[in-house]
Amino acid sequence: MYAQMVKSTGQGVKPREEMSPQERAFQDRIDADQKIEPKDWMPDAYRKTLIRQIGQHAHSEIVGQLPEGNWITRAPTLERKAILLAKVQDEAGHGLYLYCAAETLGVSRDELTQDLLSGRMKYSSIFNYPTLTWADMGAVGWLVDGAAIMNQVPLQRTSYGPYSRAMIRICKEESFHQRQGYDIMMKMANGSDAQKKMAQDALNRFWYPSLMMFGPSDKESVHSAQSMAWKIKINTNDELRQKFVDQTVPQAELLGLSIPDPDLRWNEERGHYDFSEPDWTEFFDVLRGAGPCNTDRMAARRNAWDDGAWFRDGLMAHAEKKRARAAAAKTAAE
Ligand SMILES: [Fe+2]
Ligand SMILES: [Fe+2]
Fold it and tell me: Counting ligands in written order, which one lies closest to the CA of residue 92?
């Protein structure tokens, strides 16, 4: 989902004849489906694009805990609370794997966090929408994690080794997230009239923001070509969006809920659903910071960072003492 925010670092694919021998060898390895590892030579733009993409992905996992964390204390049963807690903890874990993957490219987690807090780096626009009812926990798991899987499954084949390996583990956990969301929707959609209404309302509010998670249309995506040649991006935004719609419509039918799009219909000729584009003006507004929850989300992250300062300082002090003790023991032994 996070490819949506990656800005262009180049102007299209460099023709082979203009590549240096080093660049050519690098591209050959990618074309042969070999992974690039941290100590391998890589073009600066490849490194920069990856740091941006993995960093924004990591931030999205971390900020993504907030809309659901909001409901842990209000889950309707102990079982639902335990499930939601586990799901939100998974997202923290995803953030950690991804920060670690980004660190192998020479950027520290502290630097990435500072870039998030200063607004230089973004996170997925979806997490700037509020979660108003318990049914939203269903819609988020079903649609938001569903869209995340759609984006992340192809990234298991991405050319950068640490990123691709992180994705393999993350995708396994994401399918549990998606199922728990769908399970909540199933319960609500088959519940009382009021519950069914809540489920429909959640779908109405999360449908278009979920479609936005794949990023703007390919026509406007300037960075796609180079990222695809480098196998940082595997599918285009429009391909993934179509796949998501095709997969989700029958799931909504099974729930007895309707997708809030009057123009949605099966296109026999294309073998796909036709559907309405989301409002891209809204997408860019939210990305710029004008979404309903941008301010809250950033304030929560800033507080978490400030509140954790004593703990980070404590860890550093402990590490320093340990190092000094080891040095003293070494001197004594000599
Ligand atoms: Fe995740
Ligand atoms: Fe997830």
Answer: 1
Cα 75 to ligand 2 centre (Å): 18
| Dist. CA 155 → ligand 2 center (Å) | 15
Task: Point out the ligand nearest to the CA of residue 93.
Answer: 1
Q: pTM of the predicted model, to two decimals?
A: 0.91
Q: For 257-295, what is each residue's pLDDT tens digit?
A: 999 999 999 999 999 999 999 999 999 999 999 999 999
Residue labelled with tokens 């979660």: 131
Question: What does residue 20 show for φ and ψ, rounded to 5 degrees?
Answer: -75, 165
Q: Whats the size of the chain, residue-wise?
A: 334
| For residue 2, pLDDT beyond 80 | no
Tell me: the pLDDT tens digits for 49-78? 999 999 999 999 999 999 999 999 999 999
Residue 332: both structure tokens together: 């004594």
Q: What angle do CA 201, 207, 209 make, to 5 degrees?
A: 115
**CB 170 within 8 Å of CB 123:** no
Pairing type for strands 265-267 and 272-274 reads antiparallel
* pLDDT the model gives residue 1: 40
> From the CA of 181, how far away is ligand 2's center (Å)?
10
Per-residue DSSP letters for 106-137? T--HHHHHHHHHTTSS---GGGGS---STHHH
The whole-number pLDDT of residue 16 equals: 86
Task: Tell me, in angstroms, the distance from the centre of ligand 2 to residue 58's CA.
Answer: 12
